Sequence to fold (444 residues):
Amino acid sequence: MLDATTGEIDLGGTTVPTWTYGGELPGRELRARRGDLLQVRLRNALPQPTTVHWHGLALRNDMDGVPALTQPEIAPAATFDYAFTVPDAGTYWFHPHVGVQLDRGLYAPLVVEDPDEPGDYDQELVVMFDDWLDGTGSDPDQVLVDLLTNGMGGMGGMGGMGGMGGMGGMVMPRSDLLGGDAGDVTYPYFLANGRTADAARAVDVRPGERIRLRLINASGDTAFRVGVPGTPMIVTHTDGFPVVPTPAEAVLLGMGERVDAVVEVADSVVPLLGLAEGKDGVTQVVLRPGPEAAPDVNAAVIALLGSRVTAVNELPAAESVALPALEPDVVHPMTLGGPEPGYTWTINGRTYDPAFGVSVREGQRVRLRFENPTTMFHPMHLHGHTFQIRGPAGAGPRKDTAIVLPGQALVVDFDADNAGQWLTHCHNVYHGEAGMMTVVSYVQ
Fold:
């Protein structure tokens, strides 16, 4: 049973009213094996209708959780039974696909294990990063209304200014890594596994242990720069699929993206940091091999800011999961637009309408070419499939969510092997709800 419910959550000295799965933040992890039948009954105790989207899974279409497209909304006090086979191992997660409910506390990890994977590590650590404003004098519904009413010029939707240490100032967030504009909403808190940096969760480890990190960005409007200062990571997976193992000092995670990496524990306490890119905020989980105090977070931030950030979009897929090199049968341009007056975001000049989209046929190799002439980054997510990025250096990683930077294009290929009506959208929850969604539609 999965209960979507209301209640209070302690972020680490700050208690806020919000919506969660089972009264926990994040919700309790679900874990299955590749090929398992996953059965979950969602019980909706919220004051609004809801659904569950199983982010990243190539599951059957009627279980995908998109209202009006794949299922009816689940009304308050109603239940819905999800049941599907989990086809691929990897790091996934789940969240609602109704309005801006994702920007509350309704999210949790879903780990699909591969029984054949050698598992060259000693333990796992799942970390979900989030930006937080719900219950702090505003809520996501109010933020969206403010943005739609006032647009960007009115600084609409600011749930509170600041970040690390409560620093403030009415300055729009900027990031060179993200090509300029780093977000539309500025948050008073940033969380790792539901806690702020000064009340961070600590994980007991042993010196020399190899820890598999499963890193998930569950935020609504914030990209996170993630790393362990002074401790290199070996990136092994992107969005659940293996890549050629690659050393990295830090990685950048857009909303909805996941990275798996292995770190070897040092002899002293170290933080796993998530920097809210361009937003002057930080959160952390502490890796604790001994009783000493955690290092000063500000010094750790400076160290991570000086680290080289690995471009996840450029990592080569492992040979076992690389798509065969084929010319596409169909190419669909996906031009991202906005914000138009009234805070409107579009794909191919149109706001979301489930009756309109792009057509594919079963068995085709499909190419999507995301073009971003806007001034902001967009983490674009495709439901029901995993694509392979095609870049100047050739085939890149297998992913289902990838950042498209301002003024640039991102070319991705996928095999049309999962018939249905599938959403593709920006995983900035406010951009999506303001129109930046469309449908990839299988036709006869």
